[in-house]
Amino acid sequence: MTDDLAGGYDLVVFDLDGVVILIDHAIDGAPEAIGALHERGTAVAYATNNASRRSAEVAALLTGIGVPAQPAEVLTSAGASAAVLGEKLPAGSPVLVVGADALRDEVVDAGLTPVSTLEDKPVAVVQGYGPEVGWRLLAEAVLSVRAGAMWVATNTDKTLPSPRGPLPGNGSLVAVLRTALDREPDLVVGKPEPGLFTTAASQSHAERPLVVGDRLDTDIQGAVTAGMDSLLVLTGVSGPADLLAAGPERRPSFVAADLSGLFRPAADATVPLDADEAGGWRVTRDDDTATLDGEGDPVVALRLLCRATWNGVPVSGLSGSSEQARDLLAEWGL
């Protein structure tokens, strides 16, 4: 066991989009970080809400960007959703698939029959992200659910990170059905539900897993629900302002700028930082306001400020007294 953050865990479960990859390109430093874990013998798994690829496709993509991966290490919301339907429905049952071919293939592997219209009399609708999903298929899904079909969503991520900025995710498409039907899905399978994480831990026989993600509302909340420690990396969707405002159910154990934080002491990433000053920064609290002064690593300032906002100071009550502090808060949108 090493003295860094990752050394305290026997399994690291990575989210993919915004942590390891952006669409199909590696995030800087991700292949090297995961390669270092492999070299020291730490088990690795990947848990993704993106339902547009199957496990084998994801493993091939990762291998292609320099991250050797096996299909068994990859857990997708598409596979998990199809497995749930396979347990609930008789073999061969018609299921209307709203999503990519990967989701349709998972439905087939679960022993069910994928269909695409109300006339096929689907007994369930499964909805996952697919870049080609359009109005016509969404309309068939609405009609099918209204006719009594069970509605299962692979996940409800509102956005999907990309090099061009956040794009509409499956949650945005789920919102179309939610608006038309005026109700929620019968079941949401992916994160923040803990199933992907607990399955990964079970498969690896891990006693102390660490979840690494970029979204507070899925990755981190799922880890909290599963009773697992988590690391938020600031390379994807959730940013400093989101972390400062996070409720208890969405608070990570650690925060770092990127995956290099795995190889620094855990004390350098623990959040909140239980101190008034550190790393050139100082936070002064006065009732429901807190002032940041000094200069240094932005993540250290963030950890100090989380102590204030997680203990009663509203985000609107934060201010900076040094030029560097004011610039940093402005950069965070505060």
Automatic annotation (TrEMBL):
Keyword Hydrolase attached: yes
Keywords, comma-separated and alphabetical: Hydrolase
One of the record's GO molecular function terms: hydrolase activity
Segments forming domain GCN5-related N-acetyltransferase-like: 279-334
Upper lineage: Bacteria, Bacillati, Actinomycetota, Actinomycetes, Micromonosporales
Species assigned in the record: Paractinoplanes ovalisporus
Domain of life per record: Bacteria
Protein name in UniProt: HAD-IIA family hydrolase
Keyword DNA repair: no
SUPFAM superfamilies the UniProt entry points to: HAD-like
